[in-house]
């Protein structure tokens, strides 16, 4: 494991300007903050991964939230999806508190790393294939630095397909909540519906369903 290498990867991510559309959108989102965030200074740069350098579980999301990570500068922080996810991680013993509000809140993760497949917020939460592919080298670099890693929990179909593309899996197995696929290198991909408020409000995802996924992740990671 290498904290120094993760810091170097993080610095490369933060300085990235590969996708002109996303560069423009992250700045536009910062300039049009909703009333509840009025006057706050936005990060408005790509968001690196966050967590425990000894991570065995990598939680991979879709993309940085325009008023979550793009505002706070930390993955899965300051938006409703982050709240749902953090409660589940806390219940699973993978986070020291059930909330992720801002980068200085003292949150500590246990054997867990958080990041998104696309590190900037895309318009309408829809990255293009090129934008996804431009970010995949950062996923590769973080995975390489996390030497204890055993499981990648993919939050939603986009993250699942991005991870399979990164791993070069052909043909790609279909996404399913609770579905698993073992990669040739030994890592296991584990699918979960994304913990978005919409998925929870419609009943597609319940907190017990999310708990089941992280229980399986712990077992696959040798943490159970």
TrEMBL record:
An individual GO BP term: base-excision repair
InterPro entries: UDG_Type-4/5, UdgB-like, Uracil-DNA_glycosylase-like, Uracil-DNA_glycosylase-like_sf
Keywords, comma-separated and alphabetical: 4Fe-4S, DNA damage, DNA repair, Hydrolase, Iron, Iron-sulfur, Metal-binding
Keyword hit for Cytoplasm: no
Recorded GO MF terms: 4 iron, 4 sulfur cluster binding; DNA-deoxyinosine glycosylase activity; metal ion binding; uracil DNA N-glycosylase activity
Keyword 4Fe-4S: yes
Uracil-DNA glycosylase-like domain mapped to chain residues: 48-214
Family: Belongs to the uracil-DNA glycosylase (UDG) superfamily. Type 5 (UDGb) family.
PANTHER family with a match to the protein in the record: TYPE-5 URACIL-DNA GLYCOSYLASE
Name of protein: Type-5 uracil-DNA glycosylase
Provenance organism: Amycolatopsis australiensis
